[in-house]
Amino acid sequence: MVSHAQPVQPVSEQKDPVYRSPALNAPQKTLIAGGILVSLVLLIYLAVTQSAMQPVLLILGLLLGYTLFHARFGFTSAFRRLMSVGNGQALRAHMVMLAAAVTLFAPILAFGLSFFGGEVAGYVSPVGVSLIVGAFIFGIGMQLGGGCASGTLYAIGGGRTVMFVTLLFFIIGTTIGAYHLPFWTEDLPATEPVSLATSTGLGYGGAWIVSLLIFGAIAAVTIFIERKRNSPKVAPLPSAKGWKRIFRGSWPLFAAAIALAVLNALTLMTRGQPWGITSAFALWGSKVLQFFGIDIASWGYWQGESAMALQSSIFADSTTVLNFGVILGAFIASAAGGLFKFTKVTKGNFFASVIGGLLMGYGARLAFGCNIGAYFGGIASFSLHGYIWGIMAIGGTFLALYLRPLFGLSVPKSNDSVC
């Protein structure tokens, strides 16, 4: 704990150019043009070869990636800051995001509002051994791998080289998890899915009020922790002034939180499900194995409606299109800020990324999603499993703080910067 006589240094991500730059750099115009061109080509391809929904999802993915990068909106760093130095600013931004999300999701789910006329359903999953173990090891993995599912994608868009390693092993881990999933979900104890809205008699209105009370209580706890530990504040990131801030420099966390909630709600109304990431990784890994002659179709994970995805183009998969959009949106945002740059990979962070990616991938399949699908999407859908996911991921984060030094990764102290 920091004594009151000590100067409290701001929390920052200053050692990584993807997260922090000492000043605004000149826009990388060639890269911006390239990112826009690739996005337009992909948009036209989707419009010609896929359903009308896919181009819309690509645009939403671009906006999600753009928002994530501009605000450096993190889930990994938010949990780590709270557990290591007691700073809860980013977690309070999560609460704002979730409050806005449940406010938007409630009428959409209650009335089945949809842009394309299909069914609308939130992410409501069982609570059991699979969820608890999966979320816990995901929490460890994201602290070793250097980012969560969304963080991995937007860091790749920003040029953080080691995250390509994390993504590769994320895909491997989630593919293995898909193969093992029937054991975890069918042979081990679990409850039926529990919705605060439909399983409790509260309805969406009552569940909305309860959700807001929970978010308020969590925010209050983070403020108490900060005062108790005299926690450092988050260092401000450089930004342009006025309307130029939309394109260059950092966005306020709370503004980004609301933007992400709105974009998630639009995703729900577009494809009938909230934003997700990791199911596409399982599809990509499975298709690679299928190419080499492995009988993926016999896996329990790929039975029923999921079987069609194996026979279709990856561009027919809505989650894949969203993921491509996130990477491209983050790339354009990083280039607009003059921040795109491939970074150095050390032996320590390479092996940490291998282990972290495997743990995140495997954990995401067991836990019915990642920080986006299970935590963000689950809580926004009024599912109890989303809250359990968050608790267990924070537990995994706490353990990971003791593992990071084994790979040469920093463990911030009360007056150190978080990196």
Automatic annotation (TrEMBL):
Domain of life: Bacteria
Transmembrane segments annotated in the record for this chain: 30-48, 54-75, 96-117, 162-181, 201-225, 246-269, 314-338, 350-368, 375-403
Subcellular location: Cell inner membrane
One GO CC annotation: plasma membrane
Keyword hit for Glycosyltransferase: no
Keyword terms, alphabetized: Cell inner membrane, Cell membrane, Membrane, Transmembrane, Transmembrane helix, Transport
Membrane-protein topology: Multi-pass membrane protein
InterPro entries, alphabetized: Sulf_transp_TsuA/YedE
Family listed: Belongs to the TsuA/YedE (TC 9.B.102) family.
Identification of the protein by name: Membrane protein
